[in-house]
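Technical annex, item 7. During the second reporting period the consortium partners agreed on a shared format for inverse folding records so that results from different sites could be compared directly. Each record opens with the tokenized structure and is followed by the designed sequence. A conforming record, contributed by the partner at site C, is shown below for reference.
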């Protein structure tokens, strides 16, 4: 980053370098902040997936016991509740990933727009 900043300051001007540094810092900060926020959804999704898989395996291993006590509806209900939690957590995880990707794209687009504006100003003033 230091080398790129040095080259931009020598070849162009300080505003290009400052804009690039600001864009990179904003991108990194935004990525870390949203990733920290996303972790909770990811954990919930992983826990509910593990819970659903555990219930499915348990029901299959104890098939005869479940059948003997006529408990299929109860086991199905337990599994459905776990899968519902997983589906909700999966949707939240996907939404948070979309927020992350959209924010990153906006930061890059804004930085690019500013650099293009600086370039257009430089061409206009014959620098």
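Designed sequence (site C submission):
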């Amino acid at each position: 980053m230091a080398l790129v900043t040095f080259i931009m300051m020598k070849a162009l001007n300080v505003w290009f370098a400052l804009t690039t540094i600001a864009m990179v810092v904003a991108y990194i900060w935004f990525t870390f902040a949203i990733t920290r926020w996303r972790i909770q959804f990811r954990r919930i999704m992983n826990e509910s997936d593990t819970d659903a898989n555990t219930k499915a395996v348990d029901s299959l291993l104890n098939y005869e016991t479940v059948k003997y006590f006529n408990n299929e509806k109860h086991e199905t209900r337990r599994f459905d509740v776990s899968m519902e939690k997983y589906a909700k957590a999966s949707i939240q995880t996907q939404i948070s990933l979309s927020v992350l990707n959209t924010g990153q794209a906006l930061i890059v687009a804004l930085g690019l727009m500013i650099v293009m504006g600086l370039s257009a100003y430089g061409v206009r003033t014959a620098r």
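Residues 72-124 form the longest helix (53 residues). Residues 38 and 96 are 6 Å apart (CA to CA). All partners now use this format for quarterly exchanges.
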